[in-house]
């Protein structure tokens, strides 16, 4: 039964580097993984995701709060006592050792017999198809190969948890897609609980069973990708996830949000419950078959610059400097408090709502 | 079962997490204690003689020349006589002044010649770059103790015998090779884009070098300056061989010859001189040590 | 002035538009010219002030030049034959080798330990570093003179401490610089004391340049202190340690000041090394030619050391 990682009221303070006092890299985080799940920590640089990962690994000690692995509190234990494995952004392969020695290093450290080592190595390298690389050195490997070696090194220890720190960011874009696929299949096969850190929201949405969106040391929302996408908990999550980001319009002390793909020309939105708004179009971009329409809408709330994403199935002619009536299905609207950014209850918005009073 | 195997087995499954935590805590504390102990021991061994020097500088003769007395404390009241002797009775201040201006000039020459040379070898890829760098390195290995004999002839031939200027002329031969080698390391770490940007912006190669490379290499340059200065102040053989008259001497040779008359050593004044010279230099070097190390490691980027 | 300032500085010279490649680039841009121009002054300086004296020294060793009679007369291998017949020379040579080997081993070991201490984080690091730097940053003559007293036959404070703890009887002394074997040990000790700080700084640079990721990975992989030290840290810093060690070897091999000040080569030449013997013969004795011949013996061994350093540096760069 794969292990569960839990974090309770975790705080990590770094004493400030001269610029006005201590900084809380992790500011009260509670988190529990499901057994065997692929959990993604997503957020912009500096949000604390890497610090959280390192704290779980034991490379940093928390200022307060607890870390639990498999139900045991592991505070105060060094990484090697936690039975975890980590893959770093740079892969951190030992440059002076061959691939084989890199992979057997943790096994030697654990005092494993040579036979068992052999067994494990064969299993891990077979799983990752790197048997042919065993006598090479890291500097002779490509980015993708290095990643697989790093994974093999992590795998051989049969850890309870895999911790991955942005392992795809050093690969070039084309390689990233295939690497992503390989990673997911790898984790499916092995079944170990995995915590994965990234700043790339597309990667997170593609890989994660659940996503924890982090900002400024706190978790903004934890949930399945679909839930995060469709029901963001606040404006930060709403605009961080999704490309292009959710449109937000100020209205009566609130922010009304809707995703670009739900903003379509009025002809293409059927159904009684739709909200219409005049759209003054600035320009149109053609991207992978979709049309991204940039412009300003009026009539819903304050005038706002928005983006509409028209799929190729919508062929309504749209040209710049036009005024065209657009609409959003009412159940696709999301409402947020303008002050706090938090999600609030839906408010009826009339089909022909006038400017705010 | 080996220690590591035992430890590995003693993970959170087999031993209670609390017991494990206690053991690691103890190890951690023991390690810290050891580090402090070792650090203090090292500091004492290195600086001990200087602490002794500082005290001795103030000792009365009858305090010092008594083998029974504790050498590390003042058994009699302190006296400033010896320091007075040093500062007013010997050309010590002249020596210091000589050392300083020689040092400054030598460092200037070193940078003037060495920085472009390092740049040429690090950046401007010529087929003969590597052999040339090696050749410069080899020169460093021809030591003063080998050259001083013939150099004293050369110096005499140039009419610089007994002149402090002879040092200004000769010392760069010691400092330039090392400076070039160090600077090459620093310069290699500077990304080429920045110079290329400057050239795109309209500067010539030389202009790019002056405007972009030098400011970026500044920490490295500072480190080389300090290092070269220390080498210069410490040099002994050439100073001894080339210069006889007192007024022209530097600290390194002047202090021993002035304060050691035949068999008579003016110990207290000597110690005062040692402290007066050693402390500022070490202070400055320590200050720049951070930069110095950063310079060495600038080339070591992740992965 | 920061990098940002530099790249934002508006270009004061506007380059003329680049036409066909035929047009001669201005001097300030021609790389081959620049490379030579930048390098030439240093090369010239070194050739004139090192190369020439070096060959001059070789020349002297085959001559009869003395400070009394500076006329140059070729005498062939006479000086070298005299050297081989001189027992002091052989003593100096063996002393030099012993001195260098022992010092090198001590310097490499101690500098590694010291570098680890310097790299560790603890309070008062600045003070400790300051103390550790003192031996090397002090002019060699001054620090060595201090040791002259510290190792004195009558007044040595070390003897005083030994007397206090009972190791020595009242009025007893160690004669650190008076007994032949002990004198050599003392000279080695002082020399090592001087050089370890420098070596430690160089090794520290190597230590610090190991990416933190690698150390973290080793921790996660389950490696304890000793395994990390010998499996990761030492192999990765070995090139730097080699460089520090060999620099140390060269500086040791040519040591002259420490011997000169502490023992003048005595007692009875038991601490005489090649460099100091060359000085005594050449300058104090006035026999320039003879001194040159003695000093030249340093060279072949230095050459071997140099080649070894180069190999180490090459390996350091390709890692």
Low-confidence stretches of chain B: 1-10, 296-303
Largest sheet of chain B: 2 strands, antiparallel
Find the count of extended strands of chain C (DSSP E, 2+ residues). Answer: 0
On the 0 to 100 scale, the average pLDDT of chain B is 80
Fraction of residues in helix of chain C: over 70%
What is the tally of helical segments of chain B?
A: 15
Radius of gyration of chain B: 26 Å
> What is the CATH fold-level name of the largest domain in chain B?
MetI-like fold
Structural class of chain C: mainly alpha
CA-to-CA gap between the ends of chain B?
A: 36 Å
Biggest sheet details of chain C: none
Helical content band of chain B:
over 70%
Mean pLDDT of chain C: 79
Number of domains of chain B: 2
The CATH class of chain C is identified as: Mainly Alpha
Q: Please, what is the CATH homologous superfamily of chain C?
A: MetI-like
Give the helix/strand layout.
The complex is a heterotrimer of chains A (357), B (303) and C (319).
Chain A: E1 5-14, E2 23-32, E3 38-42, H1 49-57, E4 64-69, E5 72-73, E6 84-87, H2 99-109, H3 114-128, H4 143-155, E7 161-165, H5 173-190, E8 193-198, H6 201-207, E9 210-215, E10 218-223, H7 225-230, H8 235-240, E11 247-251, E12 254-258, E13 264-265, E14 274-287, E15 290-297, E16 304-310, E17 323-329, E18 334-337, E19 343-344
Parallel strand pairs in A: 3-8, 3-9, 6-7, 7-8
Antiparallel strand pairs in A: 1-2, 1-4, 4-5, 9-10, 11-12, 12-18, 13-17, 14-15, 14-17, 15-16, 18-19
Helix pairs in contact in A: 2-4, 3-4
Chain B: H1 3-9, H2 17-56, H3 61-64, H4 81-89, H5 92-122, H6 129-140, H7 144-157, H8 165-170, H9 172-188, H10 192-200, H11 205-216, H12 218-234, H13 237-242, H14 251-259, E1 260-261, E2 264-265, H15 267-297
Antiparallel strand pairs in B: 1-2
Helix pairs in contact in B: 2-15, 4-15, 5-9, 5-12, 5-14, 6-9, 9-12, 10-11, 12-15, 14-15
Chain C: H1 3-8, H2 31-61, H3 78-85, H4 87-119, H5 125-137, H6 140-150, H7 157-164, H8 180-208, H9 212-220, H10 225-253, H11 257-262, H12 274-284, H13 288-296, H14 298-318
Helix pairs in contact in C: 2-13, 3-13, 4-8, 4-10, 5-8, 8-10, 10-14, 12-13
């Amino acid at each position: 039964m794969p292990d569960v990682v839990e974090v309770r009221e975790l705080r990590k303070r770094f004493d400030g580097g001269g610029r006005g006092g201590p900084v809380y890299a992790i500011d009260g985080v509670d988190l529990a993984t499901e057994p065997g799940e692929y959990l993604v920590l997503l957020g912009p640089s500096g949000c604390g995701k890497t610090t959280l990962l390192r704290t779980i690994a034991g490379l940093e000690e928390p200022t307060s709060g607890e870390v639990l692995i498999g139900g045991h509190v592991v505070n105060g234990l060094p990484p090697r006592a936690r039975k975890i494995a980590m893959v770093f952004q740079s892969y951190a392969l030992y440059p002076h050792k061959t691939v084989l020695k890199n992979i057997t290093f943790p096994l030697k450290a654990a005092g494993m017999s040579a036979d068992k080592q052999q067994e494990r190595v064969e299993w891990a390298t077979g799983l990752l198809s790197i048997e042919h690389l065993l006598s090479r050195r890291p500097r002779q490997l490509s980015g993708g190969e290095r990643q697989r070696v790093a994974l093999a090194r992590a795998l051989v220890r049969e850890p309870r948890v895999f911790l991955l720190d942005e392992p795809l960011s050093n690969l070039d874009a084309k390689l990233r897609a295939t690497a992503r696929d390989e990673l997911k299949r790898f984790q499916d096969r092995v079944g170990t609980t995995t915590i994965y850190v990234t700043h790339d929201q597309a990667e997170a949405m593609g890989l994660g069973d659940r996503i924890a969106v982090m900002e400024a040391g706190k978790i903004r929302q934890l949930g399945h990708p679909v839930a995060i996408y469709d029901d963001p908990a606040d404006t930060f999550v709403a605009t961080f996830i999704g490309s292009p980001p959710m449109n937000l319009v100020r209205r009566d002390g609130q922010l009304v949000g809707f995703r670009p793909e739900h903003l379509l020309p009025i002809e293409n939105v059927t159904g009684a419950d739709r909200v219409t708004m005049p759209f003054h179009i600035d320009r149109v971009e053609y991207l992978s078959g979709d049309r991204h329409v940039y412009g300003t809408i009026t009539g819903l709330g304050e005038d706002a610059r928005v983006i509409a994403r028209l799929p190729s199935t919508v062929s309504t002619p749209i040209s710049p400097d036009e005024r065209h009536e657009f609409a959003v299905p009412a159940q696709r609207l999301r409402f947020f408090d303008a002050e706090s950014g938090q999600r609030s209850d839906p408010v009826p918005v009339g089909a022909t709502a006038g400017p705010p009073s | 079962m080996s220690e590591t195997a035992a430890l590995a087995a003693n993970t959170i499954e087999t031993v209670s997490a609390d017991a494990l935590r206690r053991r690691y805590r103890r190890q951690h504390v023991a390690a810290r204690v050891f580090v402090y102990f070792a650090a203090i021991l090292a500091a004492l061994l290195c600086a001990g003689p200087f602490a002794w020097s500082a005290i001795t500088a103030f000792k009365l003769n009858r305090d010092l020349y008594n083998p029974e007395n504790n050498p590390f404390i003042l058994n009699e009241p302190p006296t400033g006589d010896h320091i007075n002797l040093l500062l007013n009775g010997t050309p010590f201040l002249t020596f210091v002044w000589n050392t300083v201006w020689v040092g400054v000039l030598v460092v200037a020459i070193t940078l003037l010649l060495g920085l472009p040379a390092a740049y040429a070898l690090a950046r401007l890829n010529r087929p003969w770059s590597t052999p040339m760098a090696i050749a410069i390195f080899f020169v460093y290995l021809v030591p003063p103790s080998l050259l001083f004999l013939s150099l004293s002839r050369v110096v005499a031939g140039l009419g610089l015998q007994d002149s402090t200027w002879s040092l200004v002329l000769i010392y760069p031969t010691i400092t330039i090779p090392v400076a070039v080698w160090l600077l090459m390391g620093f310069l290699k770490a500077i990304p080429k884009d920045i110079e290329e940007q400057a050239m795109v912006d309209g500067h010539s190669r030389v202009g790019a070098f002056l405007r972009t490379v030098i400011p970026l290499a500044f920490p490295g340059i500072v480190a080389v300056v300090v290092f070269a200065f220390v080498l210069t102040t410490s040099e002994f053989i050439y100073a001894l061989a080339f210069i006889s008259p007192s007024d022209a001497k530097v600290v390194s040779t002047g202090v021993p010859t002035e304060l050691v008359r035949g068999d008579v050593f003016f110990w207290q004044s000597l110690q005062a001189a040692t402290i007066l010279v050693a402390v500022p230099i070490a202070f400055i070097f320590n200050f720049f040590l951070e930069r110095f190390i950063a310079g060495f490691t600038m080339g070591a980027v992740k992965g | 002035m920061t990098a940002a300032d530099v790249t934002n500085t508006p270009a004061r010279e506007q380059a003329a538009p680049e036409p066909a490649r035929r047009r001669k680039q201005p001097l300030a841009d021609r790389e081959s010219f620049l490379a030579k121009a930048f390098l030439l002054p240093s090369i010239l300086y070194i050739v004139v002030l090192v190369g020439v004296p070096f060959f001059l020294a070789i020349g002297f060793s085959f001559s009869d030049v003395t400070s009394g009679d500076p006329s140059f007369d070729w005498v062939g291998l006479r000086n070298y034959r005299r050297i081989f017949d001189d027992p002091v020379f052989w003593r100096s040579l063996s002393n030099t080798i012993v001195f260098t080997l022992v010092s090198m081993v001590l310097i490499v070991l101690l500098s590694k330990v010291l570098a680890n201490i310097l790299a560790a984080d603890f309070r008062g690091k600045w003070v400790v570093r300051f103390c550790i730097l003192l031996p090397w940053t002090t002019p060699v003559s001054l620090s060595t003179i201090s040791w002259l007293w510290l190792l004195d036959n009558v007044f040595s404070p070390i003897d005083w401490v030994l007397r206090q703890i009972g190791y020595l009887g009242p009025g007893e002394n160690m004669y650190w610089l008076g007994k032949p074997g002990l004198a050599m040990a003392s000279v080695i000790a002082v020399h090592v004391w001087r050089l370890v700080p420098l070596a430690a700084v160089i090794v520290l640079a190597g230590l610090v340049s190991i990416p933190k990721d690698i150390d973290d990975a080793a921790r996660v992989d389950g490696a304890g202190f000793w395994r990390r030290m010998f499996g990761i840290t030492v192999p990765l810093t070995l090139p730097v340690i080699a460089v520090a060690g060999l620099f140390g070897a060269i500086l040791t091999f040519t040591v002259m000041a420490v011997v000169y000040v502490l023992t003048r080569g005595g007692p009875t030449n038991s601490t005489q090394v090649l460099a100091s013997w060359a000085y005594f013969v050449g300058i104090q004795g006035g026999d320039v030619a003879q001194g040159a011949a003695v000093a030249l013996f340093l060279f072949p061994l230095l050459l071997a050391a140099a080649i070894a350093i180069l190999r180490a540096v090459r390996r350091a760069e390709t890692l």
